[in-house]
Design goal:
heterodimer, A: about 350 residues, mainly alpha, ABC transporter involved in vitamin B12 uptake, BtuC, two-stranded antiparallel sheet, B: about 350 residues, 16 helices, about 75% helix
Chain lengths: ~350, ~350
């Protein structure tokens, strides 16, 4: 890299980085897809509520996608997020039903702490094994997934429905936006509604974006993902940074579990099954590279929204079967992966060509 | 310091197998103490009137067959590409579906039909894995991401191929392949593992594949400069994995007598990667030991059977498995290893001084 720069001498700044380009493509495809859905499917897609429903239904997915993006930028992977959501949902549902705490507010607050605590525990354990004992992240988080899924069924094999009155009323609380609503056939104005979970998810996206862009930890995560050796030479505490990235990832998974419970107040052994793969797909579609150092959480958000839109389109179309859904997801993922590879490959070639031209001069 | 490092490296040959062997020994010992009758082997007559061997040992070796075969191929892909294929379960299910589809096309199931079906499903599995391999080697996408595509839609493709949820196949040949051949008391899948293992061993013995794979895995650039084409080696590793996956898919299908796109070879990708890791192979590619991966596969199955024998609820097994896996990989972690080595040499030093 250094040699290349020296050879090319003073060059004009590149207008956009790879990450920005990939993100722009993702946002463009999302907008195009949504516009096509508006034109061809009409109906629901013309209403703001449809867009809000995408957020409402996929709040947990958006949060874990953000958590995965952080870890992937740091050059790691975390496939335990779906398992942690499952465990959190089950534990919180049981706690709400059986804690017997009289005060509803206190009980809900403790449940929230329980959710974060479970996430934190997984984050700390996995972070320690990965950063300090240098075990491969894939294996550690795979074991974490097994542990979380196993603990979920140990807690309860049967589905648990939340019966806590105050929590159920909290679930029904929605932010309503009358000016974004539509008028029903009988003349009533139906406001567009956004759930608390969706607002939390949006807040997480913004916070993670700010953290990665401006906070010291965020910059360090990019550095260790880009090149661990040079990060070490720059005096960055690689172990601590890696540990913190897994800790945040675990914490966000716990939060995602609570958000999931707020959307569907019932625990079940198969909650969020395989959602880790959806989250990885969302990150990749958003332009994050598994090799680390490249990525952007805004792109991840749109990646998750693309998956959500595909799901919605297929659910509303006559092809409403789970296997069509999976095939469409696979095709979309394949398209983006190829696109990334081709774009990054071309850019690499162009850079090489630049160098050659300079050398000839 | 340097002398110490050399010492560690010299022990590396057996060192890789040390931890899985110790883990296996501990599991064996644990079972012996818990239930002395755990290893007893009996002879029983099965439904079709054949005399077959029964017992925990036979059942462990039998039911680990698919996992062991896939772990063999996975080791090669891991070594060459520095990443893992997570679509093996899905591609195996596709292979099983093709197997059933071709068999159904024949008027009666005879040996020729089975051979044709096996050939067809091997071909299809290799084609799907060539797709994965091309993404990895030509487009230079990380293996896990490239295979995520088939992981997420492979089972749907399998469903689309057979067109129904669980098509059944019923024939003496199929049950002979999935369970036991009349007259031979050992389950047939075990012979499948031996066959695939022998084949790979012969390939490694008489070709330079092993050396080339390792050199591509250790340093791709250096391998290219030495005249090895990394693209071909990576594609080849995926082709071999494809054949392994097809064989595993056929064994799984024959064992059940049906192909179910939801349950056939489910979660096997995770177990196979685990087997490779427990076997002491570096998941980042490079040098590998096939025997380690096979050992890893049998350790995983042994663990499952032990937990089942202890009357742990099958749905809860994952949690206990996770704990044991963490302990095994912790023992194999480079940091823990070097700490222990340092502790050991210090102890020896102080003994020498005294």
């Amino acid at each position: 890299m250094a040699a290349k720069k020296r050879a090319s001498g003073p060059r004009r700044r590149e207008p956009v980085t790879d990450s920005q380009l990939l993100m722009t493509i993702t946002i463009g495809i999302f907008l195009a897809m949504y516009a096509l859905a508006m034109i061809f499917m009409g109906g629901g897609f013309l209403r703001t509520q449809q867009f809000f429903d995408l957020l409402n239904d996929n709040a947990a997915l958006i949060i874990i996608s953000c958590s995965l993006t952080i870890v992937m930028i740091g050059g790691g992977i975390n496939i335990s997020v779906g398992g942690v959501i499952g465990l959190t949902v089950m534990a919180c549902a049981l706690f709400l039903n059986e804690s017997g705490i009289a005060s509803g507010g206190l009980c809900i607050f403790l449940t929230f702490l329980l959710a974060l605590g479970i996430g934190l525990a997984f984050g700390v354990l996995q972070g320690f094994l990965i950063s300090h004992l240098e075990i491969q992240p894939f294996i550690v988080t795979l074991a974490g997934m097994f542990l979380a899924r196993g603990l979920t069924t140990i807690l309860s094999v049967n589905p648990v429905k939340v019966a806590h009155e105050d929590f159920l009323s909290l679930v029904k609380v929605k932010a309503s936006f009358p000016w974004l609503g539509y008028t029903a056939k009988n003349g009533n104005l139906i406001p567009a509604k956004l759930e608390i979970g969706a607002i939390v998810a949006l807040a997480v996206v913004v916070l993670v974006y700010l953290m990665l862009r401006y906070a010291r930890l965020g910059r360090h995560i990019y550095a260790i993902g880009g090149n661990q050796q040079s990060a070490l030479m720059l005096g960055i505490n690689v172990k601590r940074t890696r540990f913190m990235s897994y800790l945040i990832s675990g914490l966000l998974s716990g939060l995602a579990g609570f958000v999931f419970l707020m959307h569907k107040p019932a625990g079940n052994a198969s909650v969020a099954m395989r959602s880790e793969m959806d989250a990885i797909a969302a990150s990749i579609i958003g332009g994050t590279l598994l090799t680390g150092g490249v990525g952007n959480v805004i792109g991840t958000f749109f990646g998750a929204m693309i998956l959500a839109t595909i799901q919605k389109i297929i659910a509303l179309s006559p092809l409403n079967e789970s296997w069509w859904q999976e095939m469409a997801n696979g095709a979309m993922l394949g398209l983006f992966i190829m696109l990334q590879s081709v774009i990054l490959g071309n850019r690499g070639k162009r850079k090489k060509a630049d160098v050659q031209i300079v050398r000839r001069e | 310091m340097s002398a110490k490092k050399i010492q560690i490296r010299r022990g590396g040959g057996l060192g890789q197998l040390l931890i899985p062997l110790v883990a296996l020994a501990i599991l064996l010992l644990f079972n012996l103490i818990r239930d002395p009758g755990f290893y007893s082997i009996g002879v029983a007559v099965n439904n079709s009137g054949n005399r077959v061997l029964t017992g925990n040992v036979i059942s462990i070796i039998d039911s680990a067959s698919e996992l062991a075969i896939i772990a063999l191929g996975m080791t090669l892909v891991t070594a060459a590409c520095g990443g893992q294929d997570i679509s093996v379960g899905a591609v195996g299910t596709i292979a099983g579906s093709i197997f059933v589809k071709v068999l159904k096309a024949f008027p009666s199931i005879n040996l020729g039909a089975v051979l044709a079906a096996m050939l067809a499903c091997c071909l299809v599995a290799v084609l799907f894995n060539l797709f994965n391999g091309a993404l990895v080697s030509v487009f230079r996408i990380q293996p896990m991401i490239a295979t995520l595509i088939l992981f997420s839609c492979g089972r749907s493709i399998a469903y689309w191929i057979v067109g129904s949820a669980t098509p059944q196949i019923d024939s003496p040949i199929i049950s002979a392949m999935g369970m036991t051949i009349p007259g031979i008391p050992i389950p047939t899948p075990i012979f499948g593992v031996i066959l695939v293992g022998l084949l790979l061993a012969l390939i490694f013995r008489f070709t330079t594949l092993r050396l080339y794979t390792e050199s591509v895995g250790v340093n791709q650039g250096a391998a290219r400069l030495n005249g090895i084409n990394p693209v071909v080696i990576k594609l080849l590793s995926f082709v071999i994995l494809g054949v392994c996956v097809a064989v595993a898919g056929v064994i799984g299908t024959c064992r059940m007598g049906q192909v179910s796109h939801k349950t056939l070879l489910i979660d096997i990708e995770m177990d196979a990667i685990l087997a490779v890791a427990i076997g002491g192979n570096n998941l980042g590619g490079g040098r590998f030991r096939i025997s380690g991966s096979i050992l890893g596969a049998y350790i995983i199955q042994m663990l499952t059977t032990t937990l089942l024998a202890m009357r742990v609820d099958p749905v809860n097994i994952k949690a206990y498995k996770a704990v044991v896996i963490i302990i095994i990989v912790m023992a194999g972690s480079p940091v823990v290893k070097s700490r222990l080595t340092a502790l050991w040499s210090r102890a020896r030093l102080s003994r020498g001084v005294n």
